[in-house]
Amino acid sequence: MKTPIFWNQKQSIISLLLIPFSYIWLLASFLNKKKPKKFDIPVIKIGNVVAGGAGKTPTVISLTKKLINSKINTHIILKGYKSSASKSIQVKKDLHTYKEVGDEALLCAACATTWVGKNRSESINNAINNGADLVILDDGLQDESILSNLNIIVFNGYQ
Q: Would you say residue 135 lies in a domain?
């Protein structure tokens, strides 16, 4: 997925007139910001800073395999892009379809215990209750409600 053309265009008069409102929005969001939740196990967030396929999920899978080979019980947490799951569920590749949990979750479930749900904190708690030593959040960098021990940014060299 390429970045939209308008991201690189010169600013219009309207966008300049809206700048004061952006500062009001920034102040309001700063005042409304909650303290991120800390968990009893390490949390790794993997994400990117550009729109589209930078390779987050393959990075998550590769890192997870290395951690599991090091005898670290690693669980993967996803929101489940286009999934119908509202509550946190453990993905079973033989039971769930891509419509229920998303295609990336099925890929991840092939190598590690994987949780999908709109509420990442709930998924992390489920992982902890099921013996996780560490969790990896796929596309987790935009979620400021969870404190992480390590952030990994994935870049696509073509964008």
A: yes
pLDDT at 159: 59
* DSSP assignment string, 91-130: --TTT--HHHH-HHHHHHHTTSEEEE-S-HHHHHHHHHHT
Tokens of 135: 């969790």
Count of CA atoms in the C-beta half-sphere (13 A) of 39: 26
Alpha helices (H) in the chain, listed in sequence order: 13-17, 19-32, 56-69, 98-101, 103-109, 120-129
> To the nearest whole number, what is the mean pLDDT of the chain?
89
Residue 133 domain-assigned (yes or no): yes
Confidence of residue 158 (pLDDT cuts 50, 70, 90): low
Q: Are 133 and 72 contacting, i.e. CB atoms less than 8 angstroms apart?
A: yes
